[in-house]
Amino acid sequence: MSGSEDPDDELLGRVLLSRVVEPGDEVVGRWVREYGMGEVVWRLREGAEALPGVSYKRWDGLRARASRAEPRRDLALAREAGVRFLRSGDVEWPQQLDDLGDARPIGLWVRGRASLRMWALRSVAVVGARACTEYGAHMAAALADGLAERGWVVVSGGAYGVDGAAHRGALSAGGATVAVLACGVDRPYPRGHTQLINRIAEQGLVIGELPPGDHPTPSRFIVRNRVIAALTRGTVVVEAAHRSGSLVTARAAQKLVRHTMGVPGPATSGLSAGVHELLRGDAVLVTDAAEIVEIVGDMGELAPERRGPVLPRDLLEPGARRVLAALPGRRAARADEIARGAQTTEDDAIARLYELRSLGYVERHGDGWKLTRQAIMSAREDRSRS
Fold it and tell me: Which residues lie across from 179 on neighbouring strands?
């Protein structure tokens, strides 16, 4: 905005452009940056000479749309629906969206009470296939639940499949979630998710670049994904085929130098082929929320060390484990025989045997020692879990 422009005029200009141009139009973004909002709107409204970078046919189309736009009416309709309009420079505007350069949103329509700027500071995108498997839906919901419990905001696109599972996972944990739509935020899409998106608006935020009443198109879904990528600290792809739109989000995140992560699936699953392709590149493999937070979080937010299950025998001292392992499985043995098997002295073996007896692992049989039924059952269980 130039210094001579009135803030209200600049606001109305952005609302008008949100009705006139498609999201992510870098040519129009460059016009606004170079000429200022007032000049761009004046040229569109008054029919002056075309701005550079577009054909006369396209310029006429933009002028026709501008002549029909009613920004004051759009703002009034938005207010009635509980929707506000944000623009760059507003207190609530997430500054990381400016990383998109001339492709950044002209503005954002926001439904919900929370501060988008504050929520975006600690947010992660969880995206994936619409026609996901039960595994994909489970993983998306579990990741979102875990992220929400750790105080992270889950961002997705509100679609069927992985998106919906991620939103539900965050909501079920009482956490925060943001749906980024490719249509007006006052008309939930897909319609089958009307209840879900309304719940997100009550508990979280529903945002989009398109004005009230606007409908989605295939191209709008694609350009919407750049907002998801720019808004968040990192993008996690749960399931995606080779040509999945969620890969567009991941590649946009990589271009913006955001973290990119993928959840592996079966090697035979076509729905995981796109994720595996990402993982062969620069994406990081993740399997739970703790691993995601370790990547996108602050220093010190480390995932726990991964170990197998703790088995009862693991809690014994090494010397006691060696003595226990030296006992025959089905008969009693003398202390000297056990000592030789454990490669220790007879006195040490006897001391360990009394320790093991107190824990219920062995019992005396005359001059010998024998495993208890508890110890035999425990050993079988340990083998089955190892």
Answer: 156, 206
Beta carbons within 10 angstroms of residue 186's beta carbon: 21
User: Cα 364 to chain center, whole Å?
Assistant: 58
Buried (b) or exposed (e) across 348-365, using 16+ Cβ within 10 A? ebbebbebbeeeebbbee
8-state DSSP, 99: G
Tell me what pLDDT residue 8 has: 78
DSSP lists the bridge partners of residue 177 as 154
CB 156 within 8 A of CB 123: no
What is the model's pLDDT at position 30?
A: 96
Using CA atoms, how far residue 358 sits from 240, 352, 363, in Å, is 55, 10, 9
* Cβ-Cβ contacts under 8 Å for 136 (sequence gap 6 or more): 128, 129, 161, 162, 165, 238, 239, 265, 271
Rounded to whole angstroms, how far apart are CA atoms 157 and 159?
A: 6
Decide: helix, strand or coil at residue 358: helix
The reported pTM is: 0.77
Question: Which residues have a Cβ under 8 Å from the Cβ of 336 and sit 6 or more positions away?
Answer: 346, 349
Q: What is the pLDDT of residue 367?
A: 86
Give the alpha-carbon dihedral of 273, 279, 285, 286, to 10 degrees: -50
pLDDT of residue 311: 45
Interval 8-35: pLDDT, tens: 789 999 999 999 999 999 999 999 999 9
Spans in the chain with pLDDT lower than 50? 1-4, 308-311, 386
Q: At what angle do helices 37-46 and 56-68 cross, to 10 degrees?
A: 90
Residue 158's contacts (CB-CB under 8 Å, 6 or more residues apart) are 164, 167, 179, 180, 181, 188, 189, 190, 193, 196, 197, 200, 206
Residues 128 and 246: beta-carbon distance below 8 Å:
yes
Predicted local distance difference test score (pLDDT) of residue 357: 81
Tokens of 300: 């010190």
CB 130 within 8 A of CB 158: no
